[in-house]
Amino acid sequence: MSGVIRLVTEVPGPKSRALLARRAQAVPRGVPAVTPIAVVQADGAVVTDADGNRLIDFGGGIGVVNTGHRHPSVVAAVRAQLDRFAHVCFPVSTYEPYVALAERLNQVTPGSHAKRTFLLNSGAEAVENAVKVARAFTGRQAVVCFEHGFHGRTNLALALTSKVMPYKKGFGPFAPEIYRIPFPYCYRCGEADGQADRRTGGRCCMASRERLEQIFASTVDPDSVAAIIMELELGEGGFVPAPKEYVDALAAFARDHGILFIADEIQTGFGRTGKLFACEHYGLVPDIIITAKSLAGGLPLAAVTGRAEILEAPQPGGLGGTYGGNPLACAAALAVLEAMEAEQLPARAARMGDRIRARFCQWATRHACIGDVRGLGAMIGMELVQDRQSKTPDKMLTVRLQAAALERGVILLSSGTYGNTVRVLAPLSISDEIMDEGLNAVEEALDAVVPSRP
Ligand SMILES: Cc1ncc(COP(=O)(O)O)c(C=O)c1O
Fold first, then answer.
1. Cis previous bond, 427, omega within 30
2. What does each C-alpha distance from 372 to 37, 364, 399 come to in angstroms?
């Protein structure tokens, strides 16, 4: 038998089901279980479940293991650090891995200006802190975010997050002074009859100073805005890349109004889009860039990096936390950044993206339920619809496809405000053979859940 997928029971098997039953009695249902499997081992792009089934991981722990599960140099770096110390608290005593990582992030993030970086535990915490810093620097309170955006689950991050169900429902009141503007989601653009649809070669209809001024005129005074926070390609919002001309127009608008540009690169970051950061596709140098997820290859770590004068605005003691920049996570992140460079993972992501896109587009010729295929580099999504005319999102089909893929040995994630975008977040270190094996299984799953059109 060739290939890495090995299914020795139905998926989920009895041992996974037993642990999920225990979980249901011990853990609240609010914490989702996207797949019904229990994992006992993960290496590279392959996950082994409690029943001994081997599956290909197209989810990467939601975009966290771009360097692959248990990358050998990440494991070695964490072990070596653990032999020295696991925690002293950076605000109490300084240690080199934190400083080295800050230096490295200052160097690899866009822009050659003087920068500072501080470290936190999660993406949401980085989002909150970026906003704190922006407010401290500008002396302004308002923050502008986007429809379909996702920035985390803490209170301020939730206020910035767009999707109501399941993230926001019942959890208000949310932080004030947050203003939401439309994201340039060309496939579903309500303006100009969707004439801006990228595939028709149209220009984004929101990409002009006049249109931005109109939008702000009924939203918030731009001169009271501390920052705009944006995912250049929506992650949880359905893998929608913003058109370059829109980002150009927005960045110029922000600059002219003294508004800081915060790029949330938590999901787009670390090679996923074919560049180390999505900003690089846009020639954008953000004032603040926030990273997390793949930064530390599986250990919890997040960073806020930005212009030195902005990051120096908060008073001593205003930033930090007990665990932020934990030494084990810093050691892991330094190894991740080395591996990214040594293995040229951003370039690999670009090639991988071409491969995935070609397959998705090929499937679209047979399946009218594939409404759109899009994304930068390996951050490719496929939006499923009931029909191409109405573009009605088909969430149920997406759920069925995920289940059918899992039955065939592939962990597949969805995203999108309407839950109808299939997204690939496989480790960038995955071989072409394993990627093809996974794609073959997803194709088989697609053929099983939706009949082909002649
Ligand atoms: C773009 C973006 N921002 C923020 C977050 C929140 O990160 P965390 O779950 O680590 O708090 C996420 C998580 O998916 C994300 O994709």
1. no
2. 30, 8, 17
Query: 454: pLDDT confidence band, cut at 50, 70 and 90?
Result: very low
pTM above 0.85, yes or no: yes
How many angstroms from the chain centroid is the CA of residue 338?
21
Q: Whose CA is nearest to atom 4 of ligand 1?
A: 151
Residue at which a domain ends, from 342, 371, 397? 342
Query: Ligand 1: distance of its center to the CA of 74 in Å?
Result: 22
The two structure tokens encoding residue 326: 């934990």
Phi and psi angles of residue 237, each rounded to the nearest 5 degrees, phi first:
-75, 0
What is the model's pLDDT at position 451? 67
Q: Which amino acid is at 317?
A: G
- On whether residue 125 sits in a domain, the answer given is yes
Domain of residue 418: give its range. 14-57+344-449
The two structure tokens encoding residue 429: 């270190």
| Ligand 1 nearest atom to the CA of residue 231, by list position | 1
User: d(Cα 408, Cα 421) in Å, to the nearest integer?
Assistant: 19
Secondary structure E strands in 268-341: 288-291, 302-307
CB atoms < 10 A from the CB of 409, how many? 22
Is the residue at 361 inside a domain? yes
Ligand 1 mean position, distance from CA 289 (Å): 13
Examine the fold and report which residue of 279, 312, 342 is the final residue of a domain before the chain moves on: 342
Question: Which strands form 379-384's sheet, in the order they lie side by side?
Answer: 370-376, 379-384, 421-423, 413-415
- Tell me how far CA of residue 261 lies from CA of 147, 195, 294, 420, in angstroms: 17, 28, 22, 29
**Does residue 208 belong to any structural domain of this protein?**
yes
Q: Is the pLDDT of residue 241 over 60?
A: yes
